[in-house]
Amino acid sequence: MASDCLATFPRRRNATVSTIDWTRLAPPEARRLRELGFDEGVEVQVLHRATLGGGPIACRIGRMTVALRRAVAASIHVAPIAG
């Protein structure tokens, strides 16, 4: 199954987190992701992207909507859910 990073994944499509490159994240960023529930196997969906290229990404994880910096989203690798 192909893996994409969350920063470039298409909007409104369901995906599963396949891996997170924890080494690319500063300790506070990694802690925040863990507190929000980001981990392998979790379902996620990109909802919105800022109109400017470097802006944040809004995504849904569970019933929460969270905003992630693009650099953080680039460290999250996802696989599309068929359907």
From TrEMBL:
This is Ferrous iron transport protein A. Pfam families: FeoA (PF04023). SUPFAM superfamilies: C-terminal domain of transcriptional repressors (SSF50037). One of its GO terms (molecular function) is transition metal ion binding. Keywords: Iron. Signal peptide: none annotated. InterPro entries: Fe-transptr_FeoA-like (IPR007167), FeoA_core_dom (IPR038157), Transcriptional_repressor_C (IPR008988). It comes from the Bacteria. It comes from Sphingomonas abaci. Residues 5-80 form the Ferrous iron transporter FeoA-like domain.
